[in-house]
Amino acid sequence: MLNTQLLGKLCLFPAVCLGVACADPASDDTEQTTDHVMSTLDRAVDYQNGDFVLLNEQAIPSVAVAGAEVRVWVSRGAVDEYRTVKQKSGVQALPEGAAIVREVFRNGALEKLTLLAKGPPGTNPELGDLWFAVVDKDGNILPDKAGAPQVGNLAECVACHKTRVNNAFLFGI
After folding, report:
1. Long-range contacts of the stretch 9-12 (C-beta < 8 A, 24+)
2. Is 34 in contact with 11 (CB distance < 8 Å)?
């Protein structure tokens, strides 16, 4: 399960934790967003338990991570919507609570998991309420090169996904 100790500390300051929701830290909205992030991360890290569907048995080259291959898992309630993703346009938005987990392999070994999730309305309106996380196989949130935890409105993820506005900000496989 997810190591939530670090996330819990960060979520005392939700704008730092999510980089998306700038609500008052004492508000119910902030608590709901924090609860959503923590429960989604817990569920996503346990992706092989049957709540997620593997879309590609064979790992395929990653377009986001040079030299890596990925396998994509989608939360059961969002599989049909995700399968509508086209390389050009015409996709249904994911339902709230949906998550996509990418197993990222390098030289055949699992290196990390990347997560994209659909938050509640207002989480990140500029990107369809999507947020991101990068964790190790045990659910520990990985730091970026500057040491910041990789969870929330991650600039590197947003830069690519924002180009996919006609596909609900998603890439298909």
Report:
1. 10/149, 10/151, 11/37, 11/38
2. yes
